[in-house]
Amino acid sequence: MKGEDMTETVSGPARRGKTTVRKGLKMRRIFTKPGVHPYDEITWERRDVVMTNWRDGSINFEQRGVEFPDYWSVNAANIVTTKYFRGAVGTPQREWSLKQLIDRVVRVYTETGREHGYFATDEDAEIFDHELKYTLAHQVFAFNSPVWFNVGTKSPQQVSACFILSVDDQMESILDWYKEEGVIFKGGSGSGVNLSRIRSSKELLSSGGTASGPVSFMRGADASAGTIKSGGATRRAAKMVVLDVDHPDIAEFIQTKAREEDKIRALRDAGFDMDLGGKDIVSVQYQNANNSVRVSDEFMRAVETDGEFGLRARLNGEVIETIKAKDLFRLMAQAAWECADPGVQYDDTINDWHTSPESGRITASNPCSEYLHLDNSSCNLASINLLKFLREDNTFDVEPFRDLVELIITAMDISITFADFPTERITETTRAFRQLGIGYANLGALLMATGHAYDSEGGRALAAAITSLMTGTAYRRSAELAAAVGPYDGYARNADAHKRVMRKHAAANDQVRTLDEVDKAIHTEATREWAEVLRLGEKNGYRNAQASLLAPTGTIGLMMDCDTTGIEPDLALKKFKKLVGGGSMEIVNHTVPRALRKLGYPGEQAEAIIAFIAEHGHIVDAPGLKREHYEVFDCAMGERSISPMGHVRMMAATQPFLSGAISKTVNMQETATVEDIEKVYFEGWKMGLKALAIYRDNCKVGQPLSVAKKKAEPVAAAPVVAAPAVPAAPARPVRKRLPKKRPATVTRFSVAGAEGYMTASSYPDNGLGEVFLKLGKQGSTLAGVMDAFSMAISISLQYGVPLETWVEKFTNMRFEPAGMTDDPDIRMATSFMDYIFRRLALDHLPYESRAELGIFSAEERALQVSGEDPASLHTTEDVAALAQSAPVDQAPAQPAVAAPPVIQIQSAPVDATESHGRRTADAPMCMTCGTNMRPAGSCYVCEGCGSTSGCS
């Protein structure tokens, strides 16, 4: 148990005479030592951060000599330097050290805490200051991005990333919604809103006319969001629109995005540019928001019993239409199958866990669905790096974790005291209810490292225990803060409801069944915390109406060098690591070796398994790996991916211990059915989730890069009237050799500092017929292998193998050296092979063929970004002048009635890397650095520069 002197607040007359001491909290040291500044125990080093423009290779950011701890990765340091350091680059005012950044932020927290009586003594304030600096510098936790952007600067001190707005059935309110949303988008945050108060298109106006309905007003908001976001760093607006399931326009709302997806397909097939970021995609509506249906228990029970359900007028609540609940539920699942929208939010479950119902219902959420509270409110977030608490013996360091939660909750509550907010209504509500959102990242890595399968009873028990301890400690600290600086303004009115929800959390904690000593130790401490929550809350009340949720942790997850975001499992078993000198390398996630040690594999056997993963990207048939251990290495994607219900079960295990909800999308295979989606939505309700969204692979047309246009359907051959008496000999291609004198180009190139030369020779009619590569020293093994490879490629081209076949096969091949090149058209290459065949494609393939493969020159990419058609660069003559390879001359065939068979070149089965690329194809392209973003909860994050499409 904690020492009483470390947790009690100090107030009232002291026992030594009549001297009084101020109210405040006693702070505990977790990681720091008295008399030692936390920075003094860190080895600092200077680095150069240089970021290039992916379109033309020019330098778009350069700051040399920045200072970071030596254990920070290149990626984490780059992201913090480019996104969070303040001051004009190149001026003395520009921040250049992580120390300056942390000091800027922590100084405001500590000074505000002193001014408002948060600390019992000056010593406690110093402990708070030092512990925050230590934990931030050691990547133990991180505040959300707005804190790093704004705190301690001359800008408004906005600390919240998540906002909820409100709209009433009045034109003035609707226009205010447009304005408030725009202000929030401009500041780089996201918001959500429920439109159910707006009259449906089936109801009358007071003037006698028919109402427009909420879906029509969504058009204006969508256009506004698209316009504002088009000037930002990401194409997807952070925006959520919710409609209640009993709204008369619910069917139209459900189908809005699915209908638009049909339109996208039709326009694409008609030749319009409907790729993500394409010039014609802007004509499609409703693409800038996530849509969710707010379903009630009444509706879900009607679905369960195949009953009827009434749609109600907005003004008087009368039923104006009765429908079959199952039909509407099927419509939701069908639309989600077609375009991933709408998601679902379970209204009665959400409001059953509401701490402040006397002040209003919870009607909406933020864009990623984890923040759920009153209208016109906001929430600031902070997330803990769970892997920092895993000891070498694979036990969880319970006490430091608990103490860190105390520290973070104290700091987050202080931030509301000094924070600025985008509107007056949000200011009033947030100050009155002081909503906080503590959460965590790296759960997936923690589970794998401890030998737990993500979809297992053991994995869920460990996740539940950690989440329960986190939220229990957060509310216990909130009760202590209430004694020190007072409960939240809305507490008195909602005291009974708030205490009831605390009892629900405590009761859920009692239902957790631990499976081993690690779970048991965490759960035992969580049980103590919940007992203290109930005791102190009864006495003091609570400082915060909300304490916890699970956010996507996109940018801040990269800042903390986390392997996994939020509640997510590992995305795949391999990842890319940036190198100090530029470039990157693909490595097996470091949690894999630790998991193998935990499972008892000796060194040599573990090395063989790791080598197999490095080569194949999965563990199936890895040498010596027991089949019962396969599930430990299951990931969100890849050869063995976690089932949709596995994700749902993990959400259900942690949801009872969260004030808010969970940002997570349940990924489903392309082959998933509408019935599969219905099951996920229905089981999510049964299991007590608050919100749920799905994504079926390849359900959207728009892709981050230009997708292959539909290839012409093969023309059916005329039916054969009679078979020949003698079978025709199969036609064989004939090699067409190059003339002795032929045009050639020599390209000198560099990939991650490694140089090479390529000579490409053509036929007189410009068809490519020969490629020779020089890599490595003459006589070396590498030089010999490349000579043989060159001859094989050259002969195949002369026999008529299309260049596209080789380009398709060898681009995106990954091995070292990989990284930056000196070619303005190809700024990054994943290997020599990747660079060589991209260069050959640019030099020898027509634009249409390259567009299908997603290969563009710098000039073509620039036109795409500006909204112009890159095809305008190429005339018909240009296209005709390019040939893929030698024409195929057929050898004389035996006389026959039947036409000779068409020779087809079939590719080998795709490897794990190619498969992984397809599975992330629907993630948007980062418009800052040009790389594919990856899923992070319900949002997306760019691992290259840290940009996100939602909460961070």
From TrEMBL:
GO molecular-function terms, A-Z: cobalamin binding; cobalt ion binding; nucleotide binding; ribonucleoside-diphosphate reductase activity, thioredoxin disulfide as acceptor
Keywords annotated in UniProt: Cobalamin, Cobalt, Disulfide bond, DNA synthesis, Nucleotide-binding, Oxidoreductase
Location of the TSCPD domain: 740-842
UniProt entry tagged with the keyword Transcription regulation: no
Catalytic activity, reaction form: a 2'-deoxyribonucleoside 5'-diphosphate + [thioredoxin]-disulfide + H2O = a ribonucleoside 5'-diphosphate + [thioredoxin]-dithiol
EC nos: 1.17.4.1
Domain Ribonucleotide reductase class II vitamin B12-dependent N-terminal: residue ranges: 49-139
Domain of life: Bacteria
CDD domains: RNR_II_dimer
Named cofactor requirement(s): adenosylcob(III)alamin
InterPro entries per record: RdRp_reductase_class-2 (IPR050862), RNR_2_N (IPR013678), RNR_lg_C (IPR000788), RNR_NrdJ/NrdZ (IPR013344), TSCPD_dom (IPR024434)
GO terms, biological process: DNA biosynthetic process
Ribonucleotide reductase large subunit C-terminal domain: residues covered: 160-695
Annotated stretches, region: Disordered: 1-20
The UniProt record lists the keyword Disulfide bond: yes
Protein family according to the UniProt entry: Belongs to the ribonucleoside diphosphate reductase class-2 family.
Role summary: Catalyzes the reduction of ribonucleotides to deoxyribonucleotides. May function to provide a pool of deoxyribonucleotide precursors for DNA repair during oxygen limitation and/or for immediate growth after restoration of oxygen.
Protein name: Vitamin B12-dependent ribonucleotide reductase
